[in-house]
Structure prediction request, 442 residues.
Amino acid sequence: MAQGASFPYEEVAEIGGGAYGTVYKARDTESGKFVALKSVRVQTDQDGLPISTVREVALLKRLEQFDHPNVVRLMDVCAIQRTDSETKVTLVFEHVDQDLKTYLEKAPAPGLSQDRIKDLMRQLLCGLGFLHSNRVMHRDLKPENVLVTSGGQVKLADFGLARIYSCHMALTPVVVTLWYRPPEVLLGSSYATPVDIWSTGCIFAEMFRRKPLFCGESEMDQLGKIFQVIGLPSEEEWPKDVTITRKQFLPPNHPPITNFVPELSEQGAELLLEMLTFDPLQRISALNALEHEYLKEEETADTEGSTREGDAIP
Amino acid sequence: MTLVDDLASAAATGNTAGVEDLLRRGADVNGVNKYGRTPLQVMMMGSTPVARLLLARGSRPNVADSSTGTTPLHDAAREGFLDTLRVLLEFKADPGARDHFNSRPVDLARQSGHDDVVEFLKLLEEAN
Prediction:
């Protein structure tokens, strides 16, 4: 970690904030390119930075060595001591100047093609599979931090910070969107990497709908909206360690998923429901989702190509 | 946070509705935020709707970064966002602008391998 070394980054705008610190869009004055700066203030003592922070930063740096095409580059890490008891750790990330939200908004009616959606999903799952196999969960996946380059390459941002933040986060509640949160988080049960698959399922549906699938206004409202689509889970599936009870929800007659995502094929609907499975242990993994028939299906263009070739054979 | 700070942040996050709302509430489209930059200079380059909104409200297209001389057209060219680049040109952004490294937008597009942007800017040059 560079301590007080040269810092060629100039902040140009605030692009996110929270209890833990602020996220900036900045310019690297040496290359002229934009970067994203994420800072976290950590308490230090005579022994220096807490071991938990050092461990998390080391993990992010280790991930960086793989140079994975579907996660943003971590370009630099700087630690600047502010006072005797506080150090500011700044992570410098590659900044991709378009997110999936903007990308979907820009798509001309009637929206993205089936092939484009499949390609985006493959890249998203590939990035996620990489993070998960390195035991990193994202925990806050949403269209705003799924970035898309001008060439259509997907890059996940804002991963791996959750744990650094949560170690040092003040008790101030941060306003974060509920829309991509899985039931186990909303219920206050324990959670792990399947949280990101749930969020990916919500994003998958949104690629077709071009608007979010579950727009809850409170945690209970969010759960209610989820059960209207996936059905109320059975008493056996309901987690034992939570205070919210199953009886608080009406058992709705839930219509088929294709009512909410009309253009979805049969196999697409099957994959979506495997991602939106209530029980996190039964939910499909990123690597298994990549192997799903829906994503393995050949692109329409290829199929047409092979048909033409077939026709040419006498 | 002033209105311009908010407008710059909304532009930088590609928040079209937020930009519209702040402009309606009187945020100065050519004001600078506390980092000395205009909303157009910091906007999410892929967000063509935000670019169009700001420019249609009279945002000056050729304000260069004080440290690097980079204009929004340089940024759009380097990042390869042809759609935003075209909107900037429509509102009289200067394709001949040079940054402090003596590069024009077309040079940055070429360095980043955005052939479509390079081709477009070369055609434009020939046409003029």
